Amino acid sequence: MATESLNAQFAALHAYREKEWPPEQLRRNVAQREALVRKYAASDHVAEGEIVEPFELIEANRNVLTRDALIENGPAVLIFFRFSGCPACNLALPYYDRTLWPALEERGIRLVAVTPQVPERLDIGERHGLRFTVASDPDNRLGRRLGITFEPEEKPAVGPGGSWIGSSTGTGTWELPQPTVLVLGQDAKALFVDVSPDWLKRTEADRILEVIETIGQAAAAHA
Asked: Structural domains in the chain?
């Protein structure tokens, strides 16, 4: 089981920002997260037990990853993240590589991190030496179908040549997925769904491993 806490890392990140960020920048960041928490409703996104229809993801090397290929030999775990330059995502994905991937690999369960970022900008896996697949969800098609995407209510003004979310992701839009863990069964049903509207609060590896253990026990009982 994982011994480190992802959310403790996020708390430390926020504490650093409270000391170092200009007050208005910090206010905007906190306000965006609080607005997403207020708007969150579980009925808006895919529910456990629902079938996830076929989809395609694109790896950085342009390989196409289909739903059926992912679950051909058993369940798969999808972790939706915002984009490669997101500071919280740069904590979360290495954390999952250390604490989650080894146990899933031992069980033959695929782990895939999913972002709308275009394939040619998927450098986060290489930068961190991630051992699991990182793939693009073109135009947020899967994320939108699952009901997990959002656009910020307050969009900062961006001058000519300035950096904004759409230029960072390569999508040209403000739309991003809320950090989400989806465990997809071999029957294409959503076995576990955990959506984090506040991107500084995400699913701990221990919780995902508990779900995987329960799935394994249920499968053994019906064997």
From this structure: 6-154+163-221 (3.40.30.10)
Predicted TM-score of the model (pTM)? 0.94
Rounded Cα gap, residues 80 and 176, in angstroms: 10
pLDDT digit string, tens, across residues 57-78: 999 999 999 999 999 999 999 9
Instruction: State the Cα–Cα distance between residues 15 and 1, nearest whole angstrom.
Output: 27
Q: Which residues contact 159 (CB under 8 A, 6 or more apart)?
A: none
C-alpha to C-alpha distance for 82 and 115, rounded to whole angstroms: 6
* Radius of gyration of the chain from its Cα atoms, rounded to whole angstroms: 17
Q: Of 148, 198, 135, 202, whose CA–CA distance to 175 is shortest?
A: 148
